[in-house]
Specification:
Blueprint (H helix, E strand, L loop, with lengths): L1 H6 L5 E3 L5 E4 L2 H38 L3 H18 L3
Antiparallel strand pairs: 1-2
Helix pairs in contact: 2-3
Length: 88
């Protein structure tokens, strides 16, 4: 992904294998890089959303049916939510 971010830089250009300037990045390529980055961000957010919902469901199960399996799942869900939110 660093390549996609680099393509968005106004002064960025492509280089050949020897490090010599090769060609300019067109606006079409910049737009495509931007759309790929946006897609990746949306995909990541959707995945995190699914993970949080699954973790919350595990936590809810401990209240509906308290047992060791559900307690372990709830603890794991709590850790997962903290990881996603950036809490330690």
């Amino acid at each position: 992904m660093p390549y996609l971010y680099a393509m968005l830089e106004p002064e960025a250009g492509r280089v050949d294998l020897d490090g010599n300037p090769a060609e300019e990045i067109t606006e079409k390529h910049r737009e495509h890089a931007q759309s790929l980055l946006e897609y990746k961000q949306i995909s990541k957010a959707r995945k995190q959303h699914r993970e949080v919902i699954a973790a919350l469901d595990a936590i809810d199960r401990i209240f509906k049916e308290p047992n060791r399996e559900n307690l372990a799942a709830a603890k794991k869900g709590s850790v997962e939510i903290r990881r996603i939110l950036g809490y330690r």
